[in-house]
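User: structure tokens for this one?
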Amino acid sequence: MKLVIVTAVEDFQDEVLKLFKKANIESFSGSEIEGYKNHNDLLATASWFPSVKGASESVMFFSFTEDDNINTLFEHISGFNNTIETNNPIRAVVIPIEKSI
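Assistant:
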């Protein structure tokens, strides 16, 4: 069993849910988050309280699941990312679980 974490811009939330279903990941949790990118270090240092927020509405999903489901999910995410015309792909990471109860 491993932990898979997936993040995406809010516009891709429905697609992430479809990809989880295709990968047979039926139990998962999700949360709305703010995503940030460091576009310009000079802008960040220009003011203590910049007027530009710079955050993107994003989502994060995570699930404790089996390797086969994760491999399938990664294949589907890769395929989806190859079709988009944005610099905000769906991202995913896997973390091994040493113990669980």
